[in-house]
Specification:
This protein is mainly beta. The chain folds into 2 domains: about 240 residues, no CATH class; about 120 residues, no CATH class. About 5% of the residues lie in helices and about 40% in strands. It has 4 helices and 28 strands. The strands form 5 sheets. An 8-stranded antiparallel sheet has the order 1-2-3-24-23-25-21-22, covered by helices on one side. Strands 6, 7, 8, 9, 10, 18, 19 and 20 form an 8-stranded antiparallel sheet that branches. The longest helix is centred in the last third of the chain and has 10 residues. The chain is globular, with a radius of gyration of 21 Å. It starts with 12 loop residues before the first strand and ends with a strand.
């Protein structure tokens, strides 16, 4: 069993802009290097995709250059035709770019900078209607039939509960790809794709992927029964897509106009002031993963909210013997509580862990090459 990690010794905080401070915490037994950003209520916060689109990756110091400071964001697929695809919910600029892993914790940043950020669990529902035919929408801006982190719907295998580090499959799916995915749909065999512009079918159905995504529309990609539905469509047919995010905290729909950003993570670490590492409920308990990811010490990226609504963005370096050992998730939860978090969650860690201030990486990432290219990030700016 890992030893208890004591509360961090007080560290001098440096104000890097009005309302935003940075502090470094150094421990010696075991060695720990911790960086803490505090963004007071009234500070502008947002989430960014690495290239402005889902496809592809970049370093936080690159795509966050226009912000004051921030950290890496959600888990993402590092390889394949969907490299950069964030796992779970992503909302930025009032647009839903990726659906949630149902039941997985997310950080919700309100559009009103004086409103309180929160940790929430979101669920997704969507539907598509083409002429008189309608069907459930399975996902947004991802590879059709491949559900990273699982937690989907519509008969995904082997499970519809969240499971970290694997993907579930579904041979019959309907996915919407918007300009937030990129210029073209991913190359994928079989199925049918249909371009939509201004609420109408823009062209005849096609196969094989690589369909251009209209800047003023989207592409529907279907397999199984969804493919058959798309093949029956004709240019000029009316198309309507409806999507809804539901908030477990609010018990109702989450209006995209009310949020500046949503980024997925998991598991939750603190719930209303009480340490509650929800590794089992959020799918981090599969054999081999729990000991390595939850109980083992790793670099961590963490987010939390204090009683007064201050946003905490925290990195813990790791995998560097003699410099910084990293933390287990229970240790990370205790750290966040000691920093004043009332609610907190884990974001993507390991080699992805990075904190940047004014475009410069201020922690020591664990990858030999330094800062890792990732799919998204959480950033703050000075209070207006």
């Amino acid at each position: 069993m890992l030893g208890t990690v004591a509360s961090p010794a007080p560290a001098a905080a440096t104000e890097i802009a009005p309302g935003v401070t940075h502090e470094r915490i150094v421990r010696t037994s075991p060695p720990m290097r911790i960086n803490v950003l505090r963004a007071a209520p009234g500070t502008s916060a947002r989430v960014l995709l690495s290239n402005g689109v889902v496809a592809g990756v970049a370093g936080p110091s690159v795509f966050g250059r226009g912000s004051l400071a921030g950290v890496n964001g959600a888990f993402f697929d590092p390889t394949g035709p969907d490299t950069g695809d964030v796992v779970g919910a992503h909302v930025g600029g009032g647009e839903l770019a990726s659906e949630p892993v149902d039941g997985r914790s997310t950080l919700v940043l309100p559009a009103d900078p004086l409103a309180r950020p929160r940790v929430d669990a979101l669920s997704f529902r969507g539907s598509v209607q083409i002429g008189g035919a309608s069907r459930m929408l399975d996902g947004i801006n991802r590879l059709r039939g491949l559900v990273w982190g699982c937690g989907g719907r519509g008969g995904d295998r082997p499970t519809q509960r969240p499971v970290h580090g694997i993907f579930c499959t579904d041979s019959t799916e309907l996915v919407q790809l918007t300009p937030r995915w990129g210029a073209r749909t991913p190359a994928i065999g079989g199925g049918t794709e249909l371009a939509v512009r201004n609420g109408k079918v823009a062209d005849r159905p096609r196969t094989g992927g690589r369909t251009p995504i209209p800047a003023d529309g989207y592409v529907l990609s279907g397999s199984g029964d969804a493919s058959r539905m798309l093949r029956r469509a004709r240019p000029g047919n009316d198309v309507a897509v409806t999507t809804t995010l539901r908030s477990s905290a609010a018990g109702g729909p989450l209006l995209l106009s009310d949020v500046a950003g949503v980024v997925s993570g998991g598991p939750r670490l603190i719930d209303r002031g009480r340490i509650a590492v929800r590794s089992q409920a959020e799918g981090f308990d599969r054999p081999g993963l729990y000991g390595r990811f939850v109980a083992g010490r790793n670099p961590r990226t963490l987010a939390g909210i204090t009683d007064i609504g201050t946003l905490l963005l925290v990195t813990v370096d790791g995998r560097r013997p003699g410099y910084s050992a990293g933390m287990s998730l229970p240790e990370a939860a205790r750290l966040m509580k000691s920093l004043g978090a009332r609610d907190a969650l884990n974001l993507d860690g390991g080699g992805s862990t990075a904190m940047v201030i004014r475009g410069r990486v201020v922690n020591r990432p664990s990858d030999p090459g330094g800062e890792r290219a990732v799919g998204s990030g959480v950033f703050v700016d000075a209070a207006p």
